[in-house]
Design brief:
By secondary structure, this protein is of the alpha/beta class. The chain contains 12 helices and 12 strands. The chain has a 6-stranded parallel sheet, with helices on both faces. Strands 7-6-8-9 form a 4-stranded parallel sheet, sandwiched between helices. Helix 7 (133-141) links the parallel strand 3 (121-124) and strand 4. It starts with 6 loop residues before the first helix and ends in an 11-residue tail after the last strand.
Length: 341
């Protein structure tokens, strides 16, 4: 039987120390990027596979990272997970994936289960029902670092990975204004999420900047699911107060709104324009194609994974910094100027 490649073999092959190889494979910060790449390439060439049992026994470490996401129905979170797994697999960590189904109670159950499985860190995007502050605090006090992304906490001091939700909500609304739409509504997300407030404020400030009228009907709290967007648009169309355009908290709301419009023979964008947020894959497949804010999902996942590894490797150093990544407003048919607004 062919002998399994070891870390010593990689060190001998590259003429570097075993300790350097070990640090590089563990993705520790005190290794040059060029050295880490050489080690990873050599490991692949020599068909090196880590001994997971030995890794778990080493320092009583599980090499497990927990993940809690609100849902797996849309493409956003699976794409983020791909970025997380890319980093963790190269650092010899395994990922336990759970979803809260948008429930604060289920989120808490998931977090407690992950703690019971001796995870070394947890990456989380909170549910629409709000934050489990006491549990977050307890986990961190027990030595389990938490990293939040997308839907982040405002109540505990922990690392975060976000985009500038305010900025891109402002740009999305301003795009509609520049295209001649005057009466613009906002289908807002759940009240318990801080990104709801940021996107709402971006909408409000863009409307104020361009002296567009805001009434008590301009902002409708809807939620996050497609069926909620559908129901909200049905209610709007049942009134005599119909907007020229709607900026939606996310793509599922916009897609639900589009479905309702088609059922009522309301043309998009000629009669009502739509803009979404978060860039689901369906955005480019529907007719008309949906204008949306695309978030760097892979990069969000990679940044969150690197942050949790950093926290694990430096447990005595509190560094709860926030990484703010760039996004992009992808302009498509659903928000084209109709010429008669």
């Amino acid at each position: 039987m062919k002998r399994q490649t070891t870390i010593k073999d990689i060190a001998k092959y590259l003429n570097i120390s075993v300790a350097t190889v070990s640090r590089a494979l563990a993705n520790l910060p005190n290794v040059k990027a060029t050295t880490r790449n050489k080690v990873l390439n050599a490991a692949k060439q020599l068909n090196y596979h880590p001994n997971l049992i030995a890794l778990k026994l080493q320092k009583n470490r599980s090499r497990l990272i927990g993940l809690v996401v609100p849902e797996l129905r849309t493409s956003f979170f699976p794409l983020v997970i791909a970025g997380i797994q890319k980093v963790l697999s190269s650092a010899n960590y395994q990922l336990i994936i759970t979803q809260s189904d948008e429930s604060k109670t289920i989120e808490a159950q998931n977090l407690q289960m992950l703690e019971n499985h001796n995870v070394e860190g947890i990456i989380i995007s909170i549910s629409r029902e709000g934050e489990n502050k006491e549990l977050y605090t307890k986990l961190m006090q027990n030595g389990i670092p938490l990293v939040f992304f997308n839907r982040v906490t405002t109540l505990v001091n922990a690392p975060k990975v976000i985009i500038d939700d305010y900025k891109f909500a402002f740009l999305a609304t301003e795009h509609l204004i520049y295209n001649g739409f005057k009466k613009i509504y906002h289908f807002a997300g759940p009240k318990n999420l801080c990104i709801t407030e940021k996107r709402k404020k971006g909408f409000i400030d863009a409307m104020h900047k361009h002296h567009k009228e805001l009434t008590d009907k301009s902002i409708i709290t809807v939620g996050v699911l497609m069926e909620k967007g559908y129901a909200a648009m049905k209610q709007v169309l049942a009134t005599q107060d119909i907007p020229d355009a709607v900026f939606c908290f996310n793509d599922p709301l916009a897609l639900g709104a589009l479905k309702a419009m088609k059922e009522e023979d309301i043309r998009c964008p000629e009669q009502i324009a739509l803009v979404g947020f978060s860039e689901t894959e369906i955005a480019q497949l529907v007719t008309p194609t949906l204008t949306s804010v695309a978030q760097p999902t892979l990069e969000i996942g990679m940044a969150a994974a690197n942050l949790v590894i950093e926290q694990i490797n430096t447990p005595d150093t509190l560094n709860p910094h926030t990484i703010c990544l760039n996004a992009c407003l992808n302009i498509r048919d659903s928000s084209q100027s109709s010429g008669n607004k």
